[in-house]
Amino acid sequence: MEADWEVHVIESPECNAFVLPGGKIFVFSGILPITESEDGLATVLAHEIAHQYARHTAEQISRQLLATVALVVASLFIDPSVLDLGRITGNLLLALPNSRDCESEADQLGLTFMAAACYDPRQAIGFWERMRAEEKVAPPQFLSTHPSSASRIDNIRKWLPDAIDKRNTTSCPDPLLTDSFFSRFGISG
Question: By CB atoms within 10 Å of each CB, which of 15, 35, 129, 168 scores lowest?
Answer without folding.
Answer: 168
